[in-house]
Predict the structure.
Amino acid sequence: MKVPQVTIYAKSAGVEIGPYEKRSEGRPPEGRIALRFFRMESGSAAIRFVAEPAEGFELYRKIHKVFRDGGKETLNHRFEGNEGEVVTRLTLDRFERGGKTGFAFSVQRGEEEINVPASAERFLHAAEFLRHLSLAQAWVEEPERAPRE
């Protein structure tokens, strides 16, 4: 089975963007978009940021704003975990180093942070892929209905 996916690798970390299916007790499955941030070190934990399709489109717009105007844009998620409220912050960034412009995706959850620098081309490609997924993942599974006679 072919799964649409974009992965951006940096020296010590990466981010994988792809479709995701949310399953909840008593509710039909729904389409989502997953951004899985990881370190290249073996045994290190990944951080998954799961976005609704509309948030995928919002990320597309934020990436273009950062690309065009500079600065940072963020998207925050809060949920109740086993040990209370968990806050995850996804940040899109344009920075200057040594006279060169760079871009980065980063995610922070508690004390854990993973930063993935990207070229302009990869940054914009990720935006376009998020825009695509925002439409492709805008679905909910309907229960099968008995045929009408």
Summary: Residues 6-136 form a domain with the Transcriptional Co-activator pc4; Chain A fold (CATH 2.30.31.10). The chain has a mean pLDDT of 94. DSSP finds two helices and eight strands in the chain. The beta strands are 6-9, 13-24, 27-39, 47-51, 71-81, 84-97, 100-109, 112-118.
